[in-house]
Design a protein that fits this description.
This protein has one domain (about 1-120). The protein has helices spanning about 1-25, 30, 40-60, 65-90, 100-120. The protein is mostly helical and about 130 residues long. The protein contains five helices and no strands. Helix 1 runs antiparallel to helix 3 (about 40-60), helix 3 runs antiparallel to helix 4 and helix 4 runs antiparallel to helix 5 (about 100-120).
Length: about 130
């Protein structure tokens, strides 16, 4: 039963990551605003990260690549965390939003560790 729950959680995480990756293309400018002005090629970086999110999601679903994808997804989530911190400090609204809710921007930071735990737990081997 625990294995089935992990698989469901893994599929949900992968769907979330695919949706987020696609959103990088649909709301590219909004995601680019989450990067400081001094970062070059901001929109290009957003498109690349969208591709990475979709690729990681697919690799998480494949048993042969799940262990490596699990690790790299956690690394990726740590790597993008500074953008969320910057958005909270600068008061940048979420992509697709016109106004920023300051409280929600800071609360959103709490979800990054949850996402890391989620992928590490859901993509763990049967033995874990």
């Amino acid at each position: 039963m625990k294995h089935i729950i992990r698989i469901i959680a893994l599929v949900l995480f992968a769907l979330f990551f695919i949706f987020a990756g696609v959103a990088h293309f649909a709301q590219g400018e909004g995601f680019a605003a989450m990067l400081p002005e001094w970062v070059p090629f901001r929109l290009g970086i957003i498109y690349v990260t969208g591709i990475i999110e979709i690729l990681l999601a697919v690799l998480l679903l494949l048993p042969a690549t799940r262990k490596q994808a699990r690790f790299w997804t956690a690394v990726y989530l740590v790597a993008i965390f500074p953008a969320n911190i910057y958005a909270a400090i600068a008061g940048i609204p979420a992509p697709g939003q016109q106004e920023a809710n300051e409280t929600l921007l800071w609360i959103r930071l709490l979800f990054q560790p949850l996402l890391i735990w989620w992928v590490l737990w859901a993509a763990a081997s049967k033995k874990s």
